[in-house]
Amino acid sequence: MKRSTGQDREKTRHWRPATQAVRGGTARSEWGETSEAIFLTSGYAYDCAADAAARFAGDQQGMTYSRLQNPTVEMLEQRIALMEGAEACRCQASGMAAMTAALLCQLEAGDHIVAGRAAFGSCRWLTDTLLPKFGIETTTVDARDPDLWKSAIRPETKLFFFETPANPTMDVVDLKAVCEIAKERDILTVVDNAFATSALQRPLEFGADIVAYSATKMMDGQGRVLAGAVCGSEDFIENTLLAFTRNTGPTLSAFNAWVVLKGLETLDLRIRRQSENALEVGRFLESRVPRINHPGLPSHPQHNLAMSQMDAAGPIFSFYLDGGRSQAHGLLDALELVDISNNIGDSRSLMTHPASTTHSGLSEEVRAEMGIEEGMLRINVGLEDPQDLIDDLDGALKAVGL
What we know:
By secondary structure, this protein is of the alpha/beta class. It folds into 2 domains: 9-264, Type I PLP-dependent aspartate aminotransferase-like (Major domain) (Aspartate Aminotransferase, domain 2, 3-Layer(aba) Sandwich), CATH 3.40.640.10; 268-399, Alpha-Beta Complex (Aspartate Aminotransferase, domain 1), CATH 3.90.1150.10. 42% of the residues lie in helices and 14% in strands. It has a 7-stranded mixed sheet, sandwiched between helices. A 5-stranded mixed sheet has the order 8-9-12-11-10. Helix 8 (175-184) links the parallel strand 4 and strand 5. The chain starts with 8 loop residues before the first helix and ends with a helix.
């Protein structure tokens, strides 16, 4: 099925990511609107029956049905692809729809994957619970050690799947090393880049094959809509992913796509300022809590690696209290400015207790394997004045005896 082109992509590929975030993929109607239009339509009309047949045969450019194509969604897909440096992108209804589609579209019974052990709770559910139902086995490894990826490979290994930085432990994966191991054995790599986005980290430049996103996070970045995206080669997107998404229907709405398009215009500004704020807050917390996981701090064991493949460390990090769940919940309850919320990537500062929220569906054994303790808290630092955040955290720490 041929897709509309909007801009001449070859003429715009040389633009840098910040420019692509504002201009990439724009397709104007005959009205010449400056802001992208929202096309709230489920279907499309044809001038004649022959045109309908030609579009369904893939011989004529144009839209057929919004489960497959929509002008607003297509603008977002082209913009994300250009920012990522990918040949193509398909948007999905949510981040987890993107992760599920990126895996299931290319796996079948008898296949094996290797996955990073530290991951978002729902991603671990995919690898640990859903895939085995279809006869697909997973080996989880400490993703920080490239040798473990190599030793986990079997003859039937089809792909590597990991996050970097990982949620919520902030483990950093050596993108170049792990992707090279995969390429040597014709294994595809699927990287969840939601914590960084292409504004801070571009996994394709290090050899990754597929990059998947929760665009709900930094791309929208203001807590408004759900969205997801999968980027890769045109061959993968059109000949492997498309059939899965077309027929299973994890479709992104035109309205949500428009909201994310607006979010992308300020992504570079927001994520860099939030990274600066998070570093300032992290320095404060480092002196007050027993342990902290912040890749931007020299104390992080993978600080040098993180800074070699990221432009900044991002707005999210985690830390530990020795008093377990009761002390962690006590700190959350004592906050006055920072909201208790399981979301991340928002322009507002948010904090959650992963063991009782985002990762509560996992067994204690799996949480222990991942490094998620009862005293762990994860914070998303927003655009507020960092000193106000520090004052709020200072009061909450004092309230729990720290």
